[in-house]
Amino acid sequence: MLKLDDRDVKILSILGREGRISKSELARRVNLSAAPAWERMKRLEEAGIITGYHASVALKKLAPHVIVFMAAELESHRAQDFQVFERVLAPLDEVVACWAVGGGFDYILQIVTRDIDSYQRLVDHLLEARVGLARYFTYVVTKPVKQGPLPFERLLALSAKE
Questions:
Q1: pTM for the full model?
Q2: How far are the Cα atoms of 57, 58, 59, 94, 114 from residue 62, in angstroms, in the given order?
Q3: Domain 59-140: which topology?
Q4: 80 - beta bridge partners?
Q5: Where are the beta strands (DSSP E) in 64-106?
Q6: In the chain, what are the domain boundaries?
Q7: Cβ(152)–Cβ(9) below 8 Å
């Protein structure tokens, strides 16, 4: 694991909130000149800590859509059953995130699609693909309440105290 100092953590925090910040502004905010700030950023990328840069897009201004969370439970819990389910999900663009979870369900999926009908077609596809889906529960997002960057500084400060 790469050892991070306070400046590295600050760089991660700033980039997590403002991925499009200029190199010179990033350097100024972490109190470094441009070259050392850039070197730190490249080191974080090469270590696989920074995995990409993304834009936050106001989807509602672009197209009608619905966001659905699906809790999924598989019929069987053998390793190959999980692999089959995950392999079938991988190419589905509407499934924007999927987490394997413990405690009742096997997966939580975040799905963004045009409408409930297209969501149902996706579910039908999963059922027809015989991926071992035993039960699923649908939770339609009615409004976003909070979405923010990861709390790097807080997480790393807490782990340093342990």
A1: 0.80
A2: 9, 7, 5, 16, 11
A3: Alpha-Beta Plaits (3.30.70)
A4: none
A5: 66-74, 95-100
A6: 6-55, 59-140
A7: yes
